[in-house]
Amino acid sequence: STPDSNSASLVDLHSSMAHGFSFTLGGQWDATPWLSFGLAYTSPTYSTPLEGDAEVDASNAVDAINSDPDFAAIAGFLLEAFLPDGENAQFKAKYRYEIKGFSAPQTVSVGTAVWPTERLVLSLDFRWVNWSAAFKQLDIKLKGGTNPNINESNGGDTIAASVKFEWKDAYIGSLGASWQALDELVLRGGYCYVSNPIPKNRMGPGSPINPHHLAGGFTVSPCATWGISAAAVFALPPPAGEPARPPHPACSS
Fold first, then answer.
1. Quick check: 81 and 122 in contact, CB under 8 A?
2. Could you give the strand order of the β-sheet that contains 10-17, starting from the edge strand earlier in sequence?
3. 68 three-state secondary structure
4. pLDDT (tens digit, 9 = 90+) per residue, 66-103?
5. Separation between Cα atoms, residue 66 and residue 117, nearest integer Å
């Protein structure tokens, strides 16, 4: 929950750690001096659960329940009868947490590059991102709760919950051009389209729904051994009635 919520429990996650690995395989075929084809595959990330320390503050949630006038009349009796600390009960606790189901997706990319002249390169890229397998559901478990009042309310020192994502696969198409304007200067530009993987009923703040992106950049190389590059990505306005969102990470990369 966000810190300004008035009725929800607040969860503060501190340190986190997980271990995982993935691999990428790729190949390129230069059909002619002016035409190349490429293919790449990146595996899913195989990882251990994300683990760390967390603090839970359920005070807001309890206060919201107690603010109900019908419940307030019996709240004191219930707290006194069922909680170890009675009416003076506090609802802050420390936990160890474990999150399963969070991983990076597998991807398949195919592309081609054409050199109309020695200084101009045109490229076309298509990518499939398997979000439907990577972002199905997160299983969250808080273990070893230190607050006896929360433990009594939950029937133990463990809290378990699941968050459904149910993302769809994303399909990404990109067009780009690179022009060596000078021996020391290369200019780049491109367009990227990405299908939105997030179902409408799973949308939230920061959900990337903008499908169209423009990009531009350059590289300055004063000598053959080093250079400076810069780039920017602009997400075009979304369709009418949909909120603006940041550029999609796949296009930013």
1. no
2. 10-17, 50-57, 92-100, 137-143, 159-164
3. coil
4. 676 666 666 655 665 676 766 666 778 889 989 888 78
5. 74
